[in-house]
Each structure stands twice: as structure tokens, then as C-alpha cells.
Amino acid sequence: MITALTLTDFRSYASATLRVGSGPIVLHGPNGAGKTNLLEAVSLLTPGRGLRGAPVAELGRREPGEAGGRAWAVAAVLAGADGDEVRLGTGVQAPGASRRIVRIDSETAQPGRMLDYLRPVWATPEHDRLFSDSRAERLKFFDRLVFAADPGHAASVSAYEKALRERLRLLTEAAEGKRPADPAWLDALEARLGEQGAAAAMARARALGDLQAGIDARGDRPFPQADLGLTGEAEQSAAMGGETAEIAAGIVAGMKASRARDSASGRSLFGPHRSDLTAIHREKNRPAAEGSSGEQKALVLNLILAQVARLKTMPEGPESLANSGANPVLLLDEAPAHLDSRRRAALFEEIVALDLQAFLTGTDETLFSDLHGRGRFVRVDAGTLAPSDD
Known about the structure:
The protein starts with a strand and ends with a strand. It has 10 helices and 15 strands. The radius of gyration is 22 Å and the shape is globular. The longest helix has about 35 residues.
């Protein structure tokens, strides 16, 4: 659990410290006050680019007239279940640096180590039409859910994408007459694509099954239920019990068969990177993409709540959160938007019932009235933080 969050020259904050406890934290204030910046800061306490996906060099605060952002830092104090404190920090030491550093208890560490302590899960207004957004954005969103419970998934996806870029470079250079593609190197790259793609597909299929079970277990709630699916051949094979080696061989065969087509189009048209997350609104029996922003948001929130419940109840094992001490932290930007009063109340009730530390933002404090007495309210304005419930 985060007990204190400190920002230094981060986005709109010159210097600010937020002291919090368990349960929900409501960040309210006008548009442009810096509420989402606080969520982004928490989201950077995990590997990756955070909830906005912004380059590291863009995160530093800028004064008028400054060409680039300053060196910045985000630091958090965490209280463990045994009462011990852990200090996480990330940032850059020089303005414009493109790679952030991570420190745990003042010692430099690999970014992946932060997952031993914290697993942020987030939804932003960009997800309000997730199911009618681009396929790539849906897959990215789903991969983040997979990664939160299975950190090795990120390494598989990264290795797959690196090999995919190299393969496409060889094919396009050959198509442009620059140099012939080396068949042996293509074979090696496609073998790597098969191995890493199969690992990613297996992880996605496992996560999909767990999340669907979580949605089903939630029963008749104010949030609509979705029947989830994955369109990729590799993921579908994994869901039906296919072996990793069999799935890898299928990816390799498909890549070989797609060489000419990929070379001509300048795109990689086959493989697990082309997979898509699908959802059917169960009650209405129609694709989620056909729903309104409010319906899509409610479906996404139900999926997110199933995810955090899954993270809190993962069984014992080498990668379990129970063993690692990590806890999910929920980040919801503009949570009340597009939700009616019944669903807002239900959302807040579930956050409290799950005993989640959750950071929620909104412009209108009154929309969070059901959380008064059960959460911390903080007024955010022009890069300043003022508790409004003391």
C-alpha cells in the first residue's frame, strides 16, 4: 500500500507530496489542475511508459520559455503487510534523458523489480470506447492486464516485436532491391517469433480464461457482463489446449507462407500481433463495439474489477502476489463520466468491498458523495494538493 507519493518537477508539479492510506483517494478539481498527472506518476511505479504512454523525455516540468523538460522524479513510500516500509523511486537525472532509472530503498534496480511491490491497473477516458477503438489499442490494453499478473508476458511480447521488426526490415530491403534477404537469418527470426509468439499466446489464453471466470463469478451486478474472446489462431489454439511447441510450429509455418505478402505490403500481416480482443454484451447479445460510450465504459470497468479481484486472490506460487507482497492499485481517471448514479454507487461499493487502494479523479466532488467517510478527498488545483476532508 502506498502511504506517501512525492513528485519533483514532474509534469505540472514543481514539488508536491500526497500522504494517503488504504482505501479510495478522490482527486477532484478543475480541468487541467494536474489530477491525471498524479495517476500517471503512480502508473510509472511499474515497467513501461505509464497510462499516457508518453516518452520519458516529455515528463519533466517546463517553465515558460524552457525548450525542454527538467529532470524529474516520482517517489513512493509503501507499507508492507509486515509493517516494513519500502521506498520506490523513478525519474531522470538530466533534462531530456530518454531512459528513466529505478531505485528501491536507494539502490539502483531493474524496472521489473517494482512489480515485487506494486501492480497498478488503470482505466482512462480513452478506454471509454475501447471496443470500437483500433485493434492494436485493444490488444495493448489486454496485454497490460496479462502482464500485471504474469510479468514474463512483457518480455515475450517485447522479444516477439523485436524479431518481427527485424524480419520486416529484411523483407522490405529485399523488395526495394537493396540486398537479398538471407534465408538462414529469416529462418532464425521466424523460429524466435514462433517461440516468443507461442509464449505470449499461451499467457493471453490463460488470462482470458481467468478474466472470463471472474466476470461470470460477479453475477448479476449493475455492470453489464461480457463474453470475451481472442481472434488470433495461436490464442484460439492455446485456449483449446494446444501445446506450446505445436503453436510455435504453426506460427513459424504461417510466417514462412506470408513472406511474399509481407514483403509486397511492407507490413507483417500474420502472427499473434494481429490478434484482437472481442466482447459480446451478454444481456443484449450484440458486439460491445455497437454500444454507447456509457455501455462500453461499464463493460471495461467490469473487466477491470474482475482483474483487480483476480490479482488480490491469485493462488500461491512462484509468481503469486501473495508471495511477492505486491498489491494491485487501481487508477481510474474521470471514473464517474458516462456512469449513471446506480453504477457510480456500485463501483464505489466494490472498491471498498475489495479493500482496494484506488486513486479516482473527477471535476465534480459531489459525484463521489457515496465515498464520504470511506475515502480520502484531495483538492487538486494548479499543481497544489489540499486535503478537503480534514
